[in-house]
Design a protein that fits this description.
Layout: H1 32-39, E1 67-75, E2 78-87, E3 90-92, E4 106-112, E5 122-129, E6 134-139, E7 143-145, E8 153-161, E9 166-169, E10 174-176, E11 181-190, E12 195-202, E13 219-227, E14 233-241, E15 259-266, H2 269-279, E16 281-283, E17 289-295, E18 301-308, H3 311-330
Parallel strand pairs: 1-5, 4-6, 5-8, 6-9, 7-10, 8-11, 9-12, 11-13
Antiparallel strand pairs: 1-2, 3-4, 12-15, 13-14, 15-18, 16-17, 17-18
Helix pairs in contact: 2-3
Length: 341
């Protein structure tokens, strides 16, 4: 194997990284995303019953207020990770270049040093991809949302894509444990010529750990909004799951399925048309898999949804969609899956 694909960028310095000993940063918000993460669940109706503070450590305290900012820019023949700013528990590796089909694309693993997301955690993530830059982001493993007896956890994300930027953000699945409460809000600011492939896979819990683990969480709330360069909202999608209040197994929600995947492809209309023409839809009477793509409003792109009972076929179906999308947009193939992924 040609080891040149594993060469790395020099580690960028953390510019102006907040002091972990000062969780309030002298009263000034680090960024709009950070500020949004602090306020996200305070006014959400679905979290009105979970505003009590943890006895062990207050919400958004030291080590519970993760922040990560990543900036990517075109540097000569390839994309460099030119900006990194973080606070624990976020950690990020150097950019790698292991994708043989796209050797100019920066591939980065997002890491957290904690054992999962805990009650009172407030996470904020910012990703900025410059003009003509290409990046692939994923996580080192599944995101585990731990059981909670007070409060909730919140996450705010902001993704900015400049002209002709290309970003694949494909994290591993989210696993909400029994009695967990989690709210996430993703804001996408995209130039019309840019492309974003973004996925969210929700597993119902530790299905084989305890009979009450499957859909045993209290609240899972997710919202994604996209905006054009003028600040106009092009679409908004939000879903709130409260299994203890409203049945999840009913027709039109999950039915007999356990795993839900939501994949967004935000791309120019001609690309979206070509991808949709190849994807189609399918349903297994045996309850193994259901999938299909729909158009987003204002020619923003496509949303591809998958329902399944096992993680492997769901991820395989996402990979098929990813392969089609990359082929249409960039004329490149997707690398074979790693044995350990």
């Amino acid at each position: 194997m040609d080891t040149s694909i594993y060469c790395v960028e020099p580690e960028p310095a953390a510019v102006g990284a907040p002091d972990d000993d000062d969780p309030e940063t002298d009263g000034n918000p680090i960024s709009e995303t950070w500020d949004r993460a602090q306020k996200l669940g305070a006014t959400a109706a679905e979290l009105a019953l979970f505003q009590d503070e943890p006895a062990q450590m207050g919400s958004a305290g030291v080590g519970k207020n993760g922040f990560l900012r990543l900036g990517f820019a075109r540097r000569g023949l390839r994309t460099g990770m030119v900006d990194v700013e973080r606070r624990v528990p976020f950690l990020v590796q150097r950019a790698l270049y292991w994708d043989e089909a796209l050797p100019d694309m920066a591939c980065v693993y997002l890491i957290t040093t904690s054992g999962g997301i805990l009650q009172g955690d407030r996470y904020s993530l910012e990703i900025d991809v410059g003009a003509d830059a290409r990046a692939h982001l994923t996580t080192q493993g599944s995101t585990k949302i731990q059981s909670m007896d007070t409060n909730y956890a919140a996450q705010a994300q902001t993704i900015r894509l400049h002209e002709n930027a290309y970003l694949e953000f494909l994290p591993e699945p989210i696993i909400p444990f029994r009695r967990s409460r989690f709210i996430t809000d993703t804001r996408i600011e995209r130039d019309p010529a840019a492309t974003l492939l973004y996925s969210e896979i929700l597993v119902p819990g530790r299905r084989y750990h305890h009979p009450d683990e499957c859909f045993g969480f209290d609240v899972f709330s997710s919202r994604v909004r996209a905006f054009d360069p003028a600040g106009r909202e092009t679409f908004c999608e939000k879903y709130v799951l409260e299994p203890q209040k409203r049945p999840i197994r009913q027709l039109g929600v999950m039915g007999d399925f356990d795993i839900y995947a939501n994949v967004l492809l935000l791309t120019p209309k001609d690309h979206a048309d070509a991808v949709q023409a190849q994807v189609g839809a399918g349903f297994s009477i045996g309850g193994e898999l259901a999938f299909g793509a729909s158009r987003l409003p204002n020619d923003a792109g496509l949303v591809f949804k998958v329902l399944g009972n096992e993680l492997k076929p769901v991820k395989e179906k996402i990979r098929e969609f990813w392969t089609t999308a990359r082929s249409v947009v960039l004329g490149a193939t997707v690398p074979p899956p790693f044995l350990w992924r």
